[in-house]
UniProtKB/TrEMBL annotation:
Domain of life: Eukaryota
InterPro entries according to UniProt: P-loop_NTPase
UniProt GO MF annotations: helicase activity; RNA binding
GO annotation, cellular component aspect: catalytic step 2 spliceosome
Protein species of origin: Lasiosphaeria miniovina
Upper classification of the organism: Eukaryota, Fungi, Dikarya, Ascomycota, Pezizomycotina
Protein name: Uncharacterized protein
């Protein structure tokens, strides 16, 4: 058995083309919201493409021009006081 680095192993059964991820159908709405409002909170299921696709949407829309950087933060719990 050979050694495999699981951090870089590609498992085809787990791969979904970006266009098939749930977030893809909301691309234009997300870009509009991010452009219009100072803060945008996106909540969705694990594996929906939030953290991988939104930065790519922004880069494709020109947000990285002139050396600008896109930063995406991920909270592990979303709590609202009662």
């Amino acid at each position: 058995m050979s050694d495999v680095d699981l951090g870089t192993a590609f498992i085809p059964a787990l791969h979904k083309p970006p266009a098939l991820l749930p977030i893809a159908r909301h691309r234009e709405t997300l870009l509009y919201m991010i452009e219009t409002y100072p803060v945008t909170v996106v909540v969705g299921q694990t594996g929906s493409g939030k953290s991988t696709q939104i930065p790519q949407f922004l880069e494709q829309a020109g947000w990285c021009a002139d050396g600008k950087i896109i930063a995406v933060t991920q909270v592990r719990a979303f709590a609202v006081p009662a």
